[in-house]
Amino acid sequence: MTAAAILEGPVTAGVSIRPLLEIDGVSHVYRSALGTETTALDGVSLSVARGEFVCLLGPSGCGKTTLLNMIAGFVTPSSGRITVDGETVRGPSPSRGVVFQDYSLFPWLTAGQNVAFGPRMAGQGPAARRQTARELLALVGLPDAADRYPAELSGGMKQRVAIARALATDPAVLLMDEPFAALDAMTRAALQRQLLAIHEARSKTVLFVTHNIAEAITLGDRVVVLSPHPGRVAADVTVDLPRPRRRTAPGFNALYAHLADAIGAETTE
Ligand SMILES: Nc1ncnc2c1ncn2[C@@H]1O[C@H](COP(=O)(O)OP(=O)(O)OP(=O)(O)O)[C@@H](O)[C@H]1O
C-alpha cells in the first residue's frame, strides 16, 4: 500500500474507500447589517461515500440550504472544513452540480442550450456539447425538448432540464435543494423514480435536501436529520428497505414514525 493510500484510509481490493464528501465540524453564523448573529449550523460532521444517496431532512430553518450552499461553494463556513474527493471546497466547481427548487433555468436559452451551458463554459466544442445535451435530455425523458424555451415547459419538465443541466459537467456529486417541492404529487413521484434510475445508471453521489419524510425514505440510502436553532445532526439513519419503496411496504411506517420523532414533528405532510 502506498503512503498516499494509507493517508486516504482503508483500502479494499486496491480501491480507496475514503468518503467522497467529508463535512468536518462545520458551523455557520450569518451576520446582518445591524450586527445580529444567527447561528445556522453548529459543529456539523458528516461523511458521504461515493455513489451514496443521502437525504438531508429537517424542519424549516434547521440549516439544510445553508449546508448545501456551503458544499456547493456559494457560502463559506465560519469554521470547520468541507472536502470533496479530498479537495477543500473554496468556491463553486463543475464537479458539484446543483439543482434548486425554483428550476433556475436561463430563460433566454433553449432547454438544449441550458444543458449545454456548463460544457460550453468548460470549453467543449459545439458539436460535442449538442451531443451531451441530446443525451442528457433523453436521459431525463425529454428527447424532443432541446429547442423549447423554459417558458414553454411545465414545472416538471423544467426540473428535468435542470437535472440534465446539473449532470452535464459529469459532477462527482449532485446537490439537490428541495427540487421537487413545488411539483404536484404525481409529477413528484415520476421525477423521484427517474432520479433513482439516473442515480443507479450513472452511480452518482447525491445529497438531497427535503423536509418531506416520505420523500426522504423513498429516495435515500441514508437519511440525516438536522435539528434547528442551531442546526445540528440529530440522527443518521440507514434505510434498508428494498426498492422501489412504497408507503404500504412493511417497515415504511415504522421508519416514518422514527424520523418524525427525530425531527420533532407530529407529521409534516
Ligand atoms: N442570508 C441569511 N442571513 C441571515 N440569516 C439567514 C440567512 N439565510 C438563512 N438564515 C438563517 O439561518 C437559519 C437556517 O436557514 P436555512 O435556509 O439554511 O434553513 P433550511 O433548513 O434550509 O430552511 P427551509 O426548509 O425553510 O428552506 C435560519 O434561522 C435562517 O433564518
Task: List the SSEs and their pairings.
Layout: H1 3-8, E1 11-12, E2 15-16, E3 21-31, E4 37-48, E5 53-57, H2 64-72, E6 79-84, E7 87-88, E8 96-99, H3 111-121, H4 126-139, H5 155-167, E9 173-177, H6 185-202, E10 205-210, H7 213-219, E11 222-227, E12 232-238, H8 252-262
Parallel strand pairs: 5-10, 5-11, 8-9, 9-10
Antiparallel strand pairs: 1-2, 3-4, 3-6, 6-7, 11-12
Helix pairs in contact: 3-4, 3-5, 4-5
CATH topology term of the domain at 3-95 and 171-262: Rossmann fold
Q: Helix count, per DSSP?
A: 8
Strand order of the largest sheet: 8-9-10-5-11-12
Percent helix among the residues?
25-40%
The outline comes out as globular
GO molecular function: ATP binding; ATP hydrolysis activity
Keywords: ATP-binding, Nucleotide-binding, Transport
Family: Belongs to the ABC transporter superfamily.
InterPro entries: AAA+_ATPase, ABC_transporter-like_ATP-bd, ABC_transporter-like_CS, ABC_transporter_ATP-bind, P-loop_NTPase
Describe the structure.
- With 269 residues, this protein is α/β, with parallel strands linked by helices.
- It has a domain at 3-95 and 171-262: P-loop containing nucleotide triphosphate hydrolases (Rossmann fold, 3-Layer(aba) Sandwich).
- Helices cover 33% and strands 25% of the residues.
- It contains 8 helices and 12 strands.
- The protein has helices at residues 3-8, 64-72, 111-121, 126-139, 155-167, 185-202, 213-219, 252-262; strands at residues 11-12, 15-16, 21-31, 37-48, 53-57, 79-84, 87-88, 96-99, 173-177, 205-210, 222-227, 232-238.
- Helix 3 (111-121) packs across helix 4 and helix 4 crosses helix 5.
- The longest helix has 18 residues, at 185-202.
- The protein is globular and about 50 Å long.
- The chain starts with a helix and ends in a 7-residue tail after the last helix.
- Adenosine-5'-triphosphate is lined by residues 30, 32, 38, 40, 58, 60-66, 211.
